[in-house]
Write a structure and sequence with these properties.
Keywords: Signal. By secondary structure, the chain is of the alpha+beta class. The protein contains 1 helix and 10 strands, in the order αββββββββββ. The strands form 2 sheets. The protein has a 6-stranded mixed sheet, with no helix packed on it. A 4-stranded mixed sheet has the order 5-10-9-7, with no helix packed on it.
Length: 156
């Protein structure tokens, strides 16, 4: 039988709990519920996703784009600490919008109703763009992976 002093037992339990937590957080699930610490992935810069509404999200660099493939001067939604910033963004109809994920887990920017826009999964460290709807209006959006995350896109 092993005997541990109070400090040794506490340290052993802490190490075991940490190992279990890291193992659970590193599962292969494509929709993690919480941000594991120290996790970082990247994706191919040529990834493109077609949307059912005819809009698309893309990370491919092209003409008139910066080094990240984002159109120069494009409005941006930055995801950090499980929030969208800015939480309300105004754009022109049909304008490209960049989504930059600075979190350590995947997120989406998905119109709450209809199929106005949906980035699909934006992986940690990834930047994608989507095209704003052609119809003026106010479009609520959420992260489908983390439904407590909300924002509003106003199309002029």
């Amino acid at each position: 039988m092993l005997r541990f002093s109070g400090k040794t037992a506490a340290a052993t339990l802490l190490a075991a709990a940490t190992a279990l937590t890291l193992t659970a957080c590193s599962s292969s699930s494509s929709h993690p519920a919480a941000a594991p610490s120290g996790t970082s992935t990247s994706s191919s810069p040529s990834m493109s996703t077609s949307m059912s509404s005819g809009t698309s999200a893309s990370t491919s660099p092209g003409a008139g784009t910066g080094s990240t493939g984002v159109p120069v001067g494009a409005p941006q939604i930055v995801i950090s600490n499980f929030t969208f910033s800015p939480s309300t963004l105004s754009v022109s109809a049909g304008q490209k919008v960049a989504v930059i994920n600075n979190d350590s887990v995947a997120h989406t920017v998905t119109a709450s109703t209809g199929n106005a826009f949906d980035t699909g999964d934006v992986n940690p460290g990834q930047t994608v763009t989507f095209t704003a709807p052609a119809t003026a209006g106010t479009y609520a959006y959420t992260c489908t992976i983390h439904p407590f995350m909300h924002g509003t896109l106003t199309v002029k």
